[in-house]
């Protein structure tokens, strides 16, 4: 029988809206298709609940007393957990049907069945059902008990009024729905068909005939579909399938879809909640994999795997099975998705070392790609570090957030400061949380900046940031877009397949050299100063424990090197480097947790260092001893003033010369060639001099003159002041803790209100110090001690700030008599330059930048460096060098940075280049004070390692991960030069093997070990690691 084709008027708007209303979840659900998705609903037998302030285990929870509960009830407050006991019976006449348990509530839920987590539930993440059975059989149990564990926080925490506002501690959570229902799979399939067709009709544009084909196909399907008669559905679905099977041409762009679920390891919720977020998100992924054998899910952060391994062993073993099948794909290679700017070079290495070793141990393979979609900028040293950790590929998308310039590539070669290259890709859809719809795949192609060069791009789908992950509708939509004319080809893919496809066709790719600077979130170099300080201090503590323990091991192989304790402490430090913790963009609960971890590293690290020092020196500290042993964990000889003890029991200053990576014992202080002199003038100003520098401060603590005696050069710009504090209004557009905007520079006010004028605090031939105090406001003050030591080429500022401000930014300024178009900043294992002018938008977008221990502004033959012991934010514009000290954002932590701060910075004028002047070494010295151990004279002078070239820094000495009788040492070229040098060592070595950053031997590299030491060749900024096999 011929089907009569209905007459269709050429009114596109009504035709389109008709199809939209047909699947609307808002309108006409009484008679449209969407309203038929579920039928035959049935209430639960009984619902009861139990509230707890703690995150307890299932076993503990089910023992508690549950009280009757109802839909509509509220529970809470924030961060508590409500356990619901669900008693249900499926009606017998539902046999043969797919039955869902429907649950809608605030908060994040986990369904437990027979003691196992089985389904994550979140209304925000569009997961509101648990499939009880896909086809109910007569013999199946119809009655059962489920538990639903509901965390009293949303996917994005519990912000009061806006997402990033501090959490509302008293939030109430509501249960909106708890029932059983029959799920109509055929209706779901048709809804998916319609969604694709309607989006194609809307988004392909009037110039595209495929748009109209989609529209009239959808319209015809509405005509054919009788929502009350399921027998009409197959023909409707067939019509859609016929449309989707009209294929693309060969040249079409290929979108590599990968399921993903970005879970911030802590952000608007604490670490403890993240463990449950992982479980909720990943069990949902497993459920989807059971139903969709082609579904691929990529998952980063070894720490999160470890959490799930420890807390949810059943789920973890399922994950391991799907990793073996190639569907659950670990990526990234790092312990956490860390901040890309602030961790030290060694911390970056340890992120990979801990991560890759974990992935290898747990899943039998290392990751092939570095995965950091959400971090606030990427160090120019990362390509070399990646390469050294077995990784040649990199994925992110965060630079799409740039406020000023559009980054010119999506797929490119990224080259680091040493010349190492990796293949980098930014998914052109500018997101890692795609929903899998037509608009996003079209945007992916349209945005793609490598058109004609590369025909592949990545597409990460699934709810993210707070977890959630992919949903079944996302998979169903993507499946319909596999190969249909008018859309790019969409295939489920794994990162290896995607990058391999790009590598096969990379001849036209461009190269980007240097850092990937995010032109946003520049406040994160400064926010939460205590976290920054904790990071820098703990990097030092772990460095020193490893260095001294290695010395002890090299002297005596029976020394117990504390490897497992060190691994634990390193992992705490690495966790805190997560990209919302170290940057300071987290809630107060997270800050408290992070500071506890730093405290643990301090507390547990101290005895480890003491044990190692005792083993190396052969004695421990003796109070009131006549001598002092000074121990140096850096790889150059240092002459410094330290505090020794005196037989009288009083501290005294001692000038000591300590060999590199070694120690010496002194009973008498060295006599400096020039003692420190202090003279006070009538106007209240004071001059200190040590033969290298002559510094004059006015009565308000500002430097009026900083004179480099040997060069006869004044450092401070005429009529200007060094050590000038300035305060700025700091009100960003939205991202409070994250952003400082360019316009803050227009609000500069110098801090000039004097509380107590400059006074001489101490005057010794080895050390002069001055003190003064300034008032910042009614509630904030600065106390500063200005110190000049004998033989020291910098002036040190020991600074204390009582800070009670709102939306203010404190900086200290040094206007210097130096002209250069570029300033230099220390980064991981090297340095880079950034402009001091604002010529182009790329220049002025970097009005606030990051650096590590020092920044330098030099012209030929002379320069000035600013050093610090725990700061990361800088800005050098024209001739003014600024160090960023404190901010006061109010979201997401209303108390961020309020309170007491102590930090040190220093200013160092120098002749020649900063390399020749030793700026790099002096900045290390400021950060790694000599260890002084009062003792009776026993220890002789000993040096474990020394280097002939000052360009080479021996950064790390540690025990090898896999060989108890071997050390790993890591060196880098710090000047940006090619160098041949010799590493001299007192250690008795059997063999020296060059290895990569994961400590795996590099087979084709031999390292000559001669009588004079280990011969090494470096290219600019090259990192070299060596395995030193100790002779037993
Ligand atoms: Zn993130």
Query: Residue-averaged pLDDT, rounded?
Result: 96
Strand content: 25-35%
Largest sheet: 9 strands, antiparallel
H/I helix tally: 19
List of distinct ligands in this structure: zinc ion
Morphology call: elongated
Ends apart, CA distance between termini: 94 Å
Evaluate the radius of gyration. 32 Å
What oligomeric state do these chains adopt? Answer: single chain
How do the strands of the widest beta sheet line up side by side? 33-34-35-36-45-42-41-38-39
By secondary-structure content and strand pairing, the structural class works out as alpha+beta
Low-confidence stretches: none
Helix content: 10-25%
Number of strands: 56
Structure description:
By secondary structure, this protein is of the alpha+beta class. The protein is built from 19 helices and 56 strands. Strands 33-34-35-36-45-42-41-38-39 form a nine-stranded antiparallel β-sheet. Strands 3-2-5-10-7-8 form a six-stranded antiparallel β-sheet. Strands 32-31-37-44-43-40 form a six-stranded antiparallel β-sheet, with no helix packed on it. A hairpin with a 5-residue loop joins strand 52 and strand 53 (1001-1006). Helix 1 (12-22) crosses helix 4. It is elongated, with a radius of gyration of 32 Å. It starts with 11 loop residues before the first helix and ends with a strand. The model has no long low-confidence stretch (mean pLDDT 96). Zinc ion binds at residues 262, 264, 374, 465, 579.
